[in-house]
Amino acid sequence: MSTPVDITIISFGYLHDAPPTAHLTLDLRTHFRDPHVSPELRYMTALDVPVRTAVLNTPGITDLVEATANAVNAFASGPSAGPITVATGCAGGRHRAPTVALALASWLRLAGREVTVTHRDLHRPVVQR
Q: Could you say which of 37, 52, 95, 129 is the most buried, measured as most Cβ atoms within 10 Å of its Cβ?
């Protein structure tokens, strides 16, 4: 069983405000396809199964989630381990970032970690671009 460490994951959209302060920040904007470009997904969020499916089936996403979980565990293993914050960001904060935040939280919980997830911008309107 892992040592108890406060882990917070915050999803956000770069187009709404500056990234939150975090130990690890994942910028998902450039390397991973944005579901926003699909009209059928644009007005959905990570709370909708089709969005989560599209994001999690993107090549590289599950590898990134696993690598980030390993990084969080490394931070938690340090001699001065304390609370850990991970920020996951995409353009609008409605698709990629919250999906990755939820997947990372699930991965960490399976490893016995207690995790809090906050979606800073999930409730915001779709950014027209």
A: 95
Residue among 109, 119, 104, 99 at smallest CA distance from 20: 119
pLDDT value of residue 1: 44
In the chain the beta strands, taken as DSSP E runs, fall at 7-13, 24-27, 84-90, 115-119
CA distance 37 to 117: 26
Give domain status of residue 73, yes or no.
yes
User: 0.90 cut: is pTM over it?
Assistant: yes
* Rounded-to-integer distance, Cα 8 and Cα 101, Å: 10
**Does residue 128 fall inside a structural domain?**
no
What whole-number distance in Å separates Cα of residue 4 and Cα of residue 41? Answer: 37
CA distance 115 to 106: 9
Nearest to 5 by CA among 93, 72, 95: 72
Structure tokens at 19: 């990234």
Torsion of CA 122, 10, 24, 6, to 10 degrees: -160
Range of the domain at 24: 7-119
Share of the chain above pLDDT 70, in %: 96
Q: Residue 11 is inside which H or E element, if any?
A: strand 7-13
